């Protein structure tokens, strides 16, 4: 319930001159960007958690006594670090804590004002100001800082980044090529959002981000292919997510055939009703979807995928990008899987429209 709903003098719009009201849409756009950013980060972390659960299940099934006695190794638990305790950092922490969900002990925040995060510390989240220490611990690192702070942060952490640590940057003003140079690191994921002219504020004003992402209308507007709400995600992000999974499997020296089976289970195992009638038409990942035809012919069955430079994946054309743009069925299934991960069913025929915006604003 909005307790301020009938108190006009306390509303954001009160006192704004008529000639300035045309700019009020920027408030809704800012909220839409925040919701989309948190939604995509949540889906990404959910996918990584599911991946680690699959590793554990396969390990347990192949050696049941060992699995029962040892449980999941500490290295297999997703450990998420957030650099920046401002508005975005705090919203992201809440969403990851509640919707992934990531246990409080597996989420840490480094910020210049840790004393301002008392509510998070009461929940069991460690909050401090020591960026190198956070990087030593985390295997996924979210950058939620200001662009002006980024060069010094990169200088602090670049020598501490392990090859497999995933850096997920929300610093929109710093392009991924520049970030690669600042960090001397290639395992970087950076979503890009493009704002279009026909903005329609569907993002709500009074719900917190966590509640908003449980609203079917808002959640469907965050789908990777949805232009709803006037904000478009560059689909290169989705390519990057898939190649992140491949790199994690390569780090475990997993044969590429097992990796493809695992990807199909993680992302293409949820189907529309019509798929049950004609399962043969459902997409399946193949080796040549991710590497060139020449490379795939020379890759033996027991070899893992190569290690991919994620910055190159997001800047250049890839086999998977070509396959994804050409396959409407694959786009639909990935969209369906995205909504399903939030517990929302997307009926066939209601898939968001496809957009492949390439620039951020």
Automatic annotation (TrEMBL):
Gene3D superfamilies in alphabetical order: NAD(P)-binding Rossmann-like Domain (3.40.50.720)
Any Pfam family matching the protein: F420_oxidored
Keyword annotations of the record: Oxidoreductase
Residue ranges constituting the Pyrroline-5-carboxylate reductase catalytic N-terminal domain according to the UniProt record: 79-170
GO molecular function, one term: pyrroline-5-carboxylate reductase activity
Biological processes per GO annotation: L-proline biosynthetic process
Purpose: Probable oxidoreductase.
Family designation: Belongs to the pyrroline-5-carboxylate reductase family.
Name of the protein this chain belongs to: NADP-dependent oxidoreductase domain-containing protein 1
Organism: Odobenus rosmarus divergens (Pacific walrus)
């Amino acid at each position: 319930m909005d307790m301020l709903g009938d108190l006009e003098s306390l509303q954001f719009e009160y006192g704004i001159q008529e000639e300035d009201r045309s700019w009020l849409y920027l408030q809704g756009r800012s909220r839409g960007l925040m919701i989309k950013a948190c939604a995509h980060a949540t889906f990404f972390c959910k996918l990584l958690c599911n991946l680690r659960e699959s590793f554990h299940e396969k390990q347990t099934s192949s050696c049941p006594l060992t699995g029962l006695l040892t449980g999941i190794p500490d290295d297999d638990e997703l450990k998420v670090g957030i650099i920046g305790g401002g508005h975005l950092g705090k919203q992201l922490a809440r969403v990851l804590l509640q919707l992934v969900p990531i246990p409080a002990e597996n989420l840490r925040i480094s910020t210049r004002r840790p004393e301002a995060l008392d509510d998070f510390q009461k929940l069991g989240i460690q909050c401090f100001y020591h960026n190198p220490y956070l990087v030593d611990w985390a295997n996924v690192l979210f950058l939620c800082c200001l662009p002006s702070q980024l060069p010094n942060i990169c200088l602090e952490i670049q020598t501490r980044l392990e090859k497999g640590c995933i850096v997920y940057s929300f610093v929109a003003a710093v392009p991924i090529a520049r970030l690669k140079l600042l960090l001397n690191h290639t395992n970087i994921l950076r979503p890009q959002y493009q704002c279009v002219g026909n903005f329609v504020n569907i993002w709500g004003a009074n719900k917190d981000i966590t509640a908003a992402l449980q609203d079917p209308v808002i959640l469907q507007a965050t789908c990777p292919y949805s232009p709803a709400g006037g904000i478009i995600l560059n689909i290169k992000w989705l390519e990057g997510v898939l190649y992140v999974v491949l790199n994690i499997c390569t780090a475990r020296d997993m044969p590429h055939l097992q990796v493809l089976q695992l990807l199909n289970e993680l992302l293409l195992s949820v189907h529309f009703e019509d798929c049950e009638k004609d399962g043969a038409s459902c997409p399946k990942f193949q080796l040549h979807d991710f590497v060139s035809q020449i490379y795939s012919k020379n890759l033996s069955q027991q070899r893992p995928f190569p290690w991919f430079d994620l910055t190159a994946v997001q800047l250049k054309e890839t086999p998977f990008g070509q396959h994804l743009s050409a396959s409407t069925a694959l786009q639909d299934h990935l969209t369906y899987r995205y909504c399903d991960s939030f517990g929302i069913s997307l009926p066939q025929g209601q898939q968001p429209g496809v957009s492949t915006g390439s620039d951020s604003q």
